[in-house]
Amino acid sequence: MIFVGGAPLCTDDSSSSSSQGHDILTDLMKHPVLASASSSFNEVAERKFSVSKDCNSSISRRNRCVYIFQREYATVDPAFVDVVGTDEATTCVGLFIRNQKSGMTSVAHLDSPDVVDIGLAQMLAFVVNQSSDAMLDVHLIGGFDDASPKHVNGITKGHEELEGYSFPLCKKIVDSLAKSNMKFQIHTLHVLGHNTRRDSEGNAYPIFTGFLMETATGSIVPANFDATTRCPDEVVRRIRVTASFEDPHWDGRLLETYDTHTDQFVIAPCTWSMRKLRIALMLQNLSDQEILLTCSTSPSAEAPDFVDSQRRQWDYLIQHPDWSETFPFNQPRIFRRTEDKSWVRHQAKFSSPSYAYAD
């Protein structure tokens, strides 16, 4: 069930399942409370997150941070974590869910409608504390209008013919929230037209691609993370995003990355075939522009380091084509927080596998 401004959002139960999500999203995008919140969000200065000693960032290593990549999620306890966030979201959507009473917060970087239903269940597992009565604060940010320059109230006209990537994802998210028995108070809906700027030729770009939440207060701001804060285990975690498509264990699921109770990154294993090596060898020979056109859903909106991130993944796969080198005995890669709030890998002694996969 969805609430806005303290009141439940009325939905038409007689609508077909295919049109209901569209109608809900349209109503939410036009809602004056959310439209005003989105306008205000545009005025918030983007905060930069870095642990570099030379960086004049507004947030630094003094904060206990959890960063998530595409298709990952993390549920954090404010007793252990100060800030949680993600970036690099163009056609993806960042979903923040926070329990008003406990402060427990779950964040996901959603990239496909296919992971929404199971992913939402994964996110809620520790947030609701087995109580369906808790009011859950929700923020959705990202997913710019990549479909067409003709739009009204943040919704592109003619989405039936030209949906792009962002619209189906946003539609699925709000539809799943509306159908849930949980109570979701939506505070921010900075997606589609609300998160879109256009150049003089009408080309669309996202206003913000990154965001973070301060767990103690639940406040959310646009944010940019640099290479020093997209950690730990950046390259392996990036590889899991594409590798998960051919690993049946992760079908429809968000990638497990962080252990809520121990404040450790527990990066669950993911398998990949030798096909990944062949693809990596082929893609490494492409030009930067060809890589953008081949590997991105929004080539003109990607950050300057997008191509470099792709090439580093392919370098790793060329050097480690067998997934079991990365995840011996199907065991996760574990990273513990140090006293200076950085991360160090814990080298466990392997015995029996904790994750079972078919060969």
Architecture overview:
- The chain is 27% helix and 25% strand.
- The chain has nine helices and 21 strands.
- It has an eight-stranded mixed β-sheet with strand order 2-1-12-9-7-8-5-17. A five-stranded mixed β-sheet has the order 3-16-15-6-4, with no helix packed on it.
- A hairpin with a 2-residue loop joins strand 1 (2-4) and strand 2 (7-8).
- It is globular and about 55 Å long.
- Mean pLDDT is 88; it is low at 352-359.
Approximately how much beta-strand content do the residues carry?
A: 25-35%
Strands ordered across the widest β-sheet: 2-1-12-9-7-8-5-17
Mean pLDDT: 88
Gross morphology is: globular
Give the number of DSSP strands: 21
Radius of gyration in whole Å, from Cα? Answer: 20 Å
Give the number of helices.
9
Task: Compile the SSE list and pairings.
Layout: E1 2-4, E2 7-8, H1 17-30, H2 32-42, E3 47-49, E4 65-67, E5 72-76, E6 83-86, E7 93-99, E8 105-110, H3 116-127, E9 135-144, E10 151-152, E11 155-156, H4 166-179, E12 183-192, E13 196-198, E14 204-206, E15 211-214, E16 219-225, H5 234-243, E17 255-256, E18 258-259, E19 264-267, H6 275-283, H7 288-295, H8 306-319, H9 323-326, E20 333-337, E21 343-346
Parallel strand pairs: 1-12, 3-16, 4-6, 5-17, 9-12
Antiparallel strand pairs: 1-2, 5-8, 6-15, 7-8, 7-9, 10-11, 13-14, 15-16, 18-19, 19-20, 20-21
